[in-house]
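On clarity, I found the account of how folds are encoded harder to follow than it need be. What matters is that the chain and its backbone geometry are given together, residue for residue. I therefore recommend that a typical entry be quoted early in the introduction. An entry of this sort, consisting of the sequence and the corresponding backbone structure tokens, reads as follows:
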Amino acid sequence: MIRIILTLLAIFSSLAAYTQGLSIDSLWSQASSYEKLKQANTNVLLTNLNIKAEQLGRLPLIYGEANLQRNLITPSTPVPAIAFNPNAAPGEILPLKFATDWSARAGVQFSMDIFNPQQKLRLKTAEMERRSAKLDYDQTLQNWKKQVTSAYAKVVISSKQYFEAVADSMRYEEIVSITQARQNAGRTTLIELNKAKQELINRQTQLHEAFRVLEVANIELSKYADTKGFTQLSSSIPDIVARLKAGGRNIQLENIQVEQQKIDLQLQSLKKEGLPTLSLNAFYGSQFYNNSFSLWNNNNWFGNSYVNVGVRLPISETIDRALKKKQLGLQNQLLTSQYREEAAMEAANQQQQALNILYSQKALENARAIERLSTENITLAQEQYKAGKILLSELNQELSAHFKNMQIVWQAEYDQLIAVLERYVEN
């Protein structure tokens, strides 16, 4: 995997025409390739198909039907013998065969609901399921944008830290050279030289740690987006913050509202459970009867056609209706309470997040002001050390303070971004 490392313009300016930078907008445009979003989108497509299936369920059911039957034992039925023999004794029973050895049936069957009180509710329920799936998709997308933006920012900041560590190591190599020259001239002790070399090793260790942090940040970013084909990041932390603003969408509240609407549909369904279902059925075809297997003989086929209207009146289904209504009522009370709680939390969170954004902005401004003063001190301390006016320990103290102040600035930038991300909306 190609690692994304922010490059110093002074080093890579000659390669600028051949490198491609990954901007925050380009990163956000990769949402459709995220696997969890693909899964959420598939769920939306499935709910669309469910709606179509419910709509098609309103159409008449028409199908061809055919069957062939061989009676191994021809069934008989007892009939009064006097119907066939006037001389039969009173009460005498005669077994009469009423079927042939072979029989068949072929035709077209038609069936449809003329009135079904549950049909419209099933369609509305399917539409509610689609809305839930879309909210789940929106929530997944929102979470992904927050995660991928945070990961992007970590790479930006880790890159700054890495290249500052590089610059710091280079500065200290120069300090070791100066100290070595002083020791050779007898102007400082070997102890001071060894201290300078020890500090250089510490700076190099710090450099390796900064590179490790950068590599970990790159790996984290690759979990959410494809970074292949990009060699640098082109958006800074201020660029990202400028693309975001406070004031977001609470999908959790919308989910609760959808669940309440589903319960309303179930309550409507309970009211209509006692209504009958009226259906229309028809058949048009022929039936075959013969003791020999001669399906091709038209004389053995007899027309058969009928139309009927059926009524289905629920009885047992309505027995526990009162219990179901009570259960749904309690669920609705629970959802109403959850909605009030979430709405109150949302109002409080917005106030907290607004304060966090203001504080993070002020903290960043102060950190930058301190870092500028620290940079001036570094320049002065280096000049004074070269002139022999301050000790190595004093220079080390200024260098360490400067690096720490830089880290505070980077952390403040990240904190500001996270504060805005908590209530982000893409401009």
